[in-house]
Amino acid sequence: MDKYLFKSIIFKETISFLLLLFMIVIFTNDLMAQPDTELPSDQVEVVKNFEARLADAEKVDISPTLPNIDTSTQTLNYSVPPNLKSIDYEPPVLRPIAMKPDPLPEIYKMFGKVGYGLPNSPFVEISYDSGIQNNLDFGAWVKHHSANNKNQLENQRFGNTDLELDGTYYFDYGFAVQGIGDFSNRNVYYYGYDHTDTIFMDEDVKQTFTLFDIGGKFFNHTRTVGDLNYSTDINFYRQNDAFKSNEFGIILDAELTKYFAEKHPLTIQIKNDFSTFKDSTSQDLNNLSLIPSFTFQSNSFYGKAGVNLSHAKDTFHLFPNVELGYLIPATGITIFAGWDGGLIKNSFRRLSEYNPYIVSEFDVKNTKLNNIYAGIKGQSGSLNYEARAGYKITENTALFLNDYAKDGKRFNVIYDDVDIFNLHGEITYSPFANLNTFVLLDFNALEPETENKAWHLPIFELNVGANGKMFKEKFGVKAELYLASGVANKNENDSEEFLGALLDLSLGADYQFTKNFGVFLDVNNITDNKRERWYRYPSFGINFLGGIIVKI
């Protein structure tokens, strides 16, 4: 497609999309508008003095290089995207200084979930949180989940084990120190071969990713005299695989924010991401970024102005970091537009988490991103929404094609410059006290520079779900529908194709017999869709998982 025609179509679609969403939100807001009521006179207390401070004008960014991972939930290697992130925005209006207090939920220090499912799927999850005792808060979390579908497809199996320790000490002087340690062991099997005439033993197709991650954080946990917030994070990690490839990394993130007039933040952020990847060679890549910004906020307007100055491989890159927003009076609707960007490292750790079937030898490169966007967002009662259209210009985006020079079971990493037109929408709505619903939509029009298609990158994804409680919150139910278009692929005959689409319906329920004991049952992929997210790798069909829940 001609690039000028492509950009013209993008501009027209963006305007139409935003006008349609604006009309829908106005209509929804009118339906939900309710007359003001007086506060009840009983149990009214002053909560805090008014602080008209907005959250920093930050967005939920979606990387154009690696869209949301299809395998983010690890239930039987079956794809469900993560739940919506809450919209981190509060309209700049006066907060009420008096309200009736809500009862605090009962807190449990230990949570356990143990179950078994089909096909051959044990599951264990245990977490512990001490709560703050003598200024110390300690937590631990362990999880194991595996499945083996050998009766249906040889070597279609996986096994994941994760362990996390987290401790924070809050000093009386207003600062805190946190330590975190993570261990992850992922067993992956290369079952993407012709099963009609080929047989492999488990050890011949097994891949194991082992990750150690340890770090610390220093930050202020109370408001300082000068209204200054600070934090410094440092993490060390090492990832190994079964083919003697490994990666060592150090990630440093320091941030300092000074508030003026209690609502205008000046922020300076420094990020340093250093890594060494060793396969048959050794590759070092160090990304250093300085990101200063200032945000002005009034009752109906906010403006963020900043830059992202990044350095990698003896080259400096300058990216804008700006956003403007306007709250339409009496509507709760904010219109916004911005331009940001940066360097995204395609490390061994990052790419193997996105596609666990990649080869163990590839070039580690940065994706250079410029993201121009506009949209609307806001809140009306229990309705939260955001709709955004964006145009992303990338260099060195990671694409994936099977390595047919060998046996085709693993994927090569191919880099290409890709222009991306993105439509994103998300809604959360609670029509009743114990019922929550959400909708998440993403559409990507992908235009690569050299390759004919953006191999194995998703185009359309829709996630709709609901969960609720009933019978005095003893009985919980949930439902989720996930739709995804097929991804572009080039097969072993060098023919281009789109793999099959996904229609996936899942249901779940849990019941608490007592406050400490309950049971759960999840039925996933009821439609028995065996879509190939990665060529030659069909997903698990219908599967079950049930067991007990213990809270102490």
How would you characterize this protein structure?
The strands form 4 sheets. The chain has a 22-stranded antiparallel β-barrel. A two-stranded antiparallel ribbon has the order 1-2. β4 (121-129) and β5 (136-148) form a beta hairpin. The longest helix has 30 residues, at 3-32. The model is unreliable at 24-102 (pLDDT under 50). It has 2 helices and 29 strands. It has a single domain (3-551), classed as Beta Barrel (Maltoporin, Chain A). The termini are far apart. With 552 residues, the chain is mainly beta. 7% of the residues lie in helices and 56% in strands.
Shape: globular
- Number of distinct helices: 2
As for the CATH topology, it is Maltoporin, Chain A
Instruction: Give the fraction of residues assigned to helices.
Output: under 10%
Structurally, the number of domains stands at 1
In this structure, how is the largest beta sheet organized? 22 strands, antiparallel, barrel
**Low-confidence spans:** 24-102
Task: Report the sheet-strand fraction.
Answer: over 45%
Alpha carbon gap, first and last residue = 60 Å
- The tally of strands reads 29
Mean pLDDT: 86
Could you name the CATH class?
A: Mainly Beta
Report Rg: 25 Å
Q: Mind telling me the CATH superfamily name? A: TonB-dependent receptor, beta-barrel domain
The structure class reads mainly beta
**CATH architect. name:** Beta Barrel
Oligomer: single chain
Detail the topology: elements first, then pairings.
Elements: H1 3-32, E1 45-46, E2 98-99, E3 110-118, E4 121-129, E5 136-148, E6 157-170, E7 175-189, E8 206-220, E9 228-240, E10 246-260, E11 264-278, E12 282-297, E13 301-312, E14 315-320, E15 322-328, E16 333-345, H2 348-354, E17 366-380, E18 383-402, E19 411-432, E20 435-448, E21 460-470, E22 475-484, E23 488-490, E24 496-498, E25 502-512, E26 517-524, E27 532-534, E28 537-538, E29 543-551
Antiparallel strand pairs: 1-2, 3-4, 3-29, 4-5, 5-6, 6-7, 7-8, 8-9, 9-10, 10-11, 11-12, 12-13, 13-14, 13-15, 15-16, 16-17, 17-18, 18-19, 19-20, 20-21, 21-22, 22-25, 23-24, 25-26, 26-29, 27-28
